[in-house]
Design brief:
The protein has about 100 residues and is mainly alpha-helical. The chain is built from three helices and no strands. α2 packs antiparallel against α3. It is elongated.
């Protein structure tokens, strides 16, 4: 192999490395979104009698929003992260309320 062939292979490997990282980041964002939905559904189920109806409705709306993004196979990492953050922020807010109730 001459130096030009080696350089071409190195460049190809570097290009694939970036592509692989983007794919991995997208898979991680999807997994995180799935996990957050499961956590939210469990929170509602386990605390049905303690969560205010308005909070429950808000969580359910955010769950549906995340699920819709998950259904879209072309959803970007940013879309997944943004909707997941909205859901987790709501879960934290409601979780704090539940904790303060004792």
């Amino acid at each position: 192999m001459d130096e030009a062939e080696v350089d071409a292979l190195v460049k190809e490997a570097e290009a694939k490395k970036e592509e692989d990282k983007k794919k991995k980041d997208l898979v991680d964002a999807r997994n995180n979104a799935d996990s957050s939905v499961a956590q939210a559904e469990k929170m509602i189920k386990d605390n049905t009698d303690k969560i205010e109806e308005a909070d429950k409705k808000s969580i359910e709306e955010k769950i549906e929003k995340v699920k819709k993004v998950l259904e879209n196979t072309d959803a970007s990492k940013e879309e997944l992260e943004n909707t997941t953050k909205e859901l987790t922020d709501e879960l934290m807010k409601v979780g704090q309320k539940l904790y303060s109730q004792g």
